[in-house]
Every structure is written in C-alpha cells, then in structure tokens.
Write a structure and sequence with these properties.
By secondary structure, the chain is mainly α. The protein folds into 2 domains: about 110 residues, Rna Polymerase Sigma Factor, Chain: A, CATH 1.10.1740.10; about 80 residues, Arc Repressor Mutant, subunit A (Orthogonal Bundle), CATH 1.10.10.10. The chain has 11 helices and no strands. The longest helix has about 30 residues.
Length: about 240
C-alpha cells in the first residue's frame, strides 16, 4: 500500500478550502460505486473482516478509494489543521493494515475506521497542547433528556443551502471540538445518534446534548456571518 506524501501547509486558513475540496470530491457516482462494492450489510461487513484478516491488498485498495475523502474530512474537522489531518490519515490506514484482524464485521466498517482515527486524535492530543475531545466541556453539558426534530432538511443543511461551503466550514471550526464532531457525524456522515454514541463512547444523552448545544452555538455564528456579508455587499 502506497501513500502519496504532500508538502505541509502551515496556513490554517487552507483548512477551509480543503474541507470544501474534500467534500466536493465525494460525488454521487463515487457514493454509488461505494455502495456497489461494499454495502453496509452484516454479510458484507463479515466479508470485509475476512479480507482484512488475510490482508487482501485488493480489498484494502478498494477501502482506501471508497473512504479516503470521508476519513480526511472527519480528521480535518477534528483537528482543524490540514497537515495534522494528513499525518493522521496515513497513520489510520496503517492501523487498518496492521490491526485488520481485530475487525470482526459486527459493526459497520466506516464506524470502526472513524473510531481508529478518533483514538489517534486523542492520543495526539495527550502528547501535544491540543485539547482532548473527551475533556471538552466536561461537567458543563446539560444532559437533560430532549428530542431533536429531524423532519425535513437539517439546520446544518439549511445553512449550507444559503452560504458558501467554505464559510460553513469556517463557522463549524469555531465550535468546540466535541460539538463539531457530533454535528459532522450526524449531518455529513448521517450516522444515527446511537452510532455516534458508540463511536465516541459517550452516553446517548451526552450525544443528544452535544448535538443540541452544537446547533444552538452554530446559529448565531451563521447569523453573524450573514450580517457581515450584507454589510460588505452594501459597502460595494
């Protein structure tokens, strides 16, 4: 398995454009191919598990082709740094290669893949000055039960329909990492709240709280962005 090395880009503002580029790379035809090659069913998950146990190079190449854009986007949202995300991207696939035998096929492969990536981010945060995902907002989250209406377009999808993708990404990166992560997994990856709870190892009530508070924090940021845009257009 070969990875293409890229020169590090120190300017963090490139993260926004990179998020847009990665998101736009996931075209409908690529998603269709992904569904055709590896649909998320129990039998096919078991087939992936068998292929990883025997370190099937063809299967591994297919997995990288299908999931590379989603994985990089996830890491970009978690870290906010392109060069860090690229390093962790490569390390994640190395873990898949070396520890593929640990995947038993009972969970969806993408959930297992994101779990590996998330653990690498947490490990890195303990070595550096980055705030740990597990420690963000500790003791400050309201875990009172509530339900979030999911009928129709999500709030994030409504924002995206009105704003440029780069600006939405910029707003998301201003949120606390645990809120940003839940929003990304729910509305970009379309994971259920239960799946997010399993991936993040957080109680379902905590996931709901982070989703609610993330959406609440996102709204004023987007409104401020819109106001700034209107002022700029009026001044032209």
């Amino acid at each position: 398995m070969k990875f293409t090395s890229r020169k590090s880009e120190s300017a963090e503002k490139r993260v926004f454009s990179e998020l847009v580029r990665v998101s736009e790379s996931v075209q409908p035809d690529a998603i269709s191919r992904a569904a055709a090659i590896i649909a998320q069913t129990q039998s096919e998950s078991a087939e992936i598990a068998r292929g990883l146990k025997r370190q099937d190079p063809e299967l591994l190449d297919q997995l990288i082709e299908i999931y590379q854009h989603r994985l990089l986007r996830y890491l970009l949202f978690l870290t906010g740094k392109r060069e860090v995300a690229e390093d962790l991207f490569q390390e994640t696939w190395m873990r898949v290669l070396l520890r593929g035998a640990q995947y038993n096929g009972k969970a969806r492969f993408d959930t297992w893949l994101f779990t590996i990536a998330r653990n690498l981010v947490i490990d890195l945060s303990r070595k550096r000055t980055m705030s740990s995902l597990d420690e963000m907002s500790e003791g400050r989250e309201d875990e009172r039960p509530f339900e979030i209406a999911m009928e129709g377009p999500s709030p994030l999808e409504q924002f995206q329909s009105r704003e440029d993708s780069a600006e939405v990404a910029e707003v998301l990166l201003k949120l606390e990492p645990n809120y940003r992560e839940v929003l990304m997994l729910r509305f970009y990856e379309e994971l259920s709240l239960e799946e997010i709870a399993g991936l993040t190892r957080a109680p379902l009530s905590t996931v709901k709280s982070r989703l609610y508070r993330g959406l609440a924090a996102l709204k004023p940021e987007v409104e401020q962005l819109r106001a700034s845009r209107r002022l700029a257009e009026a001044g032209q």
